[in-house]
């Protein structure tokens, strides 16, 4: 199983509009962060998690057009407003792409992008939407799901398992529940939100994330959804063994 980090940034990306790099060194390409998304794949299966506004460039960089499914974590704009670019994937595959989300998120997606789910004006649907259950199998990848508190809504926390390996993806949450602990224990790789050093009301800060990493004990952890206050090299030097900042284009094969 392989993970590719398509986007490692927060909702405004790095740099922010106005070439605002914050504390990030603009000379380090690992600091250029598009909006959060990942690709999970095996030799036979590819699952995209979230359709960020940067999806087109992300999939071009990954040289990927074949997708077996999309999973949306929640309905915030930085995680699904790239929906329209699924048209090209559907044109390539000749079918609507299976897309999964929790019921509230799916309702929001269908409302805002009705044409993608139902077609319009002679154009066929590009997404075959379905509710995301607590567990499902896509190709040779098993997915387990937990609801994560994220301010006034929830996001879907994900655990992927295939051929004896496991990857967890936890973004956009601010509380660690026992249900979440159940899917994030004993992971080979945990990709997890760490927005900044200062506390935030709806995202974990670096200290909180490191505490959960210590508690849950993944064999390797990668931090994502980082804003422009976290310089890659500076943060990498501060993190404990087995924990590293993510960056756009990082690929990890298990």
Secondary structure layout plus pairing:
Blueprint: E1 2-7, E2 37-41, E3 46-49, H1 55-62, E4 69-71, H2 77-80, H3 86-93, E5 97-101, H4 103-112, H5 114-118, E6 127-131, E7 135-138, E8 141-150, E9 153-162, E10 165-170, H6 178-184, E11 189-193, H7 206-216, E12 221-224, H8 232-238, E13 243-245, E14 251-253
Parallel strand pairs: 3-4, 4-5, 5-6, 10-11, 11-12, 12-13
Antiparallel strand pairs: 1-2, 1-14, 2-3, 7-8, 8-9, 9-10
Keywords:
254 residues, alpha/beta, 14 strands
Would you mind describing this structure in some detail?
It is a single chain. The chain has 254 residues and is an alpha/beta fold. 24% of the residues lie in helices and 29% in strands. The strands form 2 sheets. A 7-stranded mixed sheet has the order 6-5-4-3-2-1-14. It is globular, with a radius of gyration of 17 Å.
Query: What is the overall pLDDT average?
Result: 97
| Side-by-side strand order of the widest sheet | 6-5-4-3-2-1-14
Number of strands: 14
Structural class: alpha/beta
Q: What portion of the residues fall into strands of 2 or more residues?
A: 25-35%
The termini sit apart by 6 Å
Question: Which regions have little confidence, pLDDT < 50, spanning 5+ residues?
Answer: none
The general outline is: globular
Pfam families: Lactamase_B_2
InterPro entries: Metallo-B-lactamas, RibonucZ/Hydroxyglut_hydro
Organism: Sphingomonas rustica
Protein name: MBL fold metallo-hydrolase
């Amino acid at each position: 199983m392989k993970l590719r980090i398509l986007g490692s940034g927060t909702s405004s990306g790095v740099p922010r509009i106005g070439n605002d790099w914050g504390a990030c060194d603009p000379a380090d390409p690992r600091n250029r962060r598009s909006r959060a998304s990942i690709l999970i794949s095996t030799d036979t299966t590819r699952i995209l998690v979230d359709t960020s506004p940067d999806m087109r460039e992300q999939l071009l960089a990954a040289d990927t057009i074949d997708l077996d499914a999309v999973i949306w974590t929640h309905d915030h704009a930085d995680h699904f407003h790239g929906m329209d670019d699924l048209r090209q994937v559907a044109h390539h595959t000749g079918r609507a792409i299976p897309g999964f989300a929790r019921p509230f998120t799916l309702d929001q997606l269908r409302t805002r992008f009705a044409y993608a789910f139902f077609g319009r004006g002679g154009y066929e649907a590009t997404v075959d939407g379905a509710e995301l259950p607590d567990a499902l199998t896509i190709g040779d990848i098993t997915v387990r799901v937990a609801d994560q508190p994220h301010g006034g809504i929830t996001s879907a926390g994900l655990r992927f398992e295939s051929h004896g390996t496991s990857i967890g993806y936890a973004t956009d949450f601010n509380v660690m529940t026992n249900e979440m602990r159940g899917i994030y224990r004993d992971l080979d790789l945990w990709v997890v939100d760490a927005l900044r050093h200062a506390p935030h009301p709806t995202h974990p800060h670096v200290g909180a994330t490191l505490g959960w990493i210590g508690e849950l004990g993944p064999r390797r952890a990668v931090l994502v959804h980082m804003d422009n206050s976290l310089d890659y090299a500076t943060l990498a030097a501060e993190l404990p063994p087995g924990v590293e900042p993510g960056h756009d284009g990082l690929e990890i094969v298990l």
